[in-house]
Amino acid sequence: MRVLRMALVGGAIVLASSILRSTSPTETDAQDIAPSLAGNEVLRVLGDDVVGAPESAPPLNDPIRVARWEPGEWRYRVMTGSRKGQTEHESLEPIDTTTRGESWKRTVGQDYTLYLRQTAEGSLVLPSQVAHAHSALVHFEPPLSYLLAGLRPGESRAFDGRMEVYSSKDPSVRWYGGRIRATTVYAGVYQVRTPAGTFRATLIRTEYRIDIFAVVSVRDTLYTFYADGVGKVAEAEHRRISAVGLFNSDTHIGKLLVSFTPVPPVAPPVKIEAP
Questions:
Q1: What is the DSSP letter of 200?
Q2: Domain boundaries, the chain
Q3: Is there a contact between 236 and 223 (Cβ–Cβ < 8 Å)?
Q4: Residues whose CB is less than 8 angstroms from the CB of residue 204 and which lie 6 or more positions away in sequence, other chains included
Q5: Which H or E run contains 15?
Q6: Pairing mode, strands 216-227 and 197-212
Q7: Within 10 Å of residue 173's Cβ, how many Cβ atoms?
Q8: By C-alpha distance, which of 164, 272, 269, 222 is closest to 46?
Q9: First and final CA of the chain: distance in angstroms?
Q10: pLDDT tens string 175-200
Q11: Using an 8 Å Cβ cutoff, are 122 and 139 in contact?
Q12: Tens-place pLDDT, residues 82-106
């Protein structure tokens, strides 16, 4: 049983690092100017001169444009931890629609594959993902929101749902379930300096809480910066894990955009008529 619990803790750690966004609105506190992030411990992992002063922020009316939701490849420089200085690749591509309505696949390094779809309102939602290191397939009910349409500066939305974890090698095998709670805030617009250039970037901050078996508790704060026409240009995370009788951890993670390469659409084959 101890070995099983250790495996489940590992799965919770993986899930916490890649779960994104929330849904149902609960409160609004609109503002035109983003708050200062000076002294924020999480953002310092990106580097002292990365995030500039706050700027005026418009409503988030078009997440597809902000996230550059089209086929492409992004490369990021890891700024902290044992992988500091290494490059992580992300890619986005359309797929045939799945039984859960997913029509896009985002691959994050060698660790995760996220399966997403767009809602009628223009938001991006995450019904499921695979954590490859643990061969875990995760379903979210209701789907988590990846990026929400219609958020105003300062507005927050909250989510309370479930996650069900299966073997990715045999999806008929259910391993465990748990509760996930999240609060997402449109935290304003900032100038962000990266190896790929300087961008005027929208900041989305999400606080996550995951509870599994009353044994594992995950607290995760994720800061994601998006630049129009480029997509994600920077990300910072503060993750806290508490596993009763096993261990506790406190980790900071950060990465900055190095390059973005769009993938041109594949042209249909030319039909040649016989003479």
A1: E
A2: 2-262
A3: yes
A4: 21, 147, 184, 185, 186, 187, 223, 224, 226
A5: helix 2-18
A6: antiparallel
A7: 11
A8: 222
A9: 72
A10: 988 888 888 999 999 999 999 999 99
A11: no
A12: 889 999 999 999 999 999 999 999 9
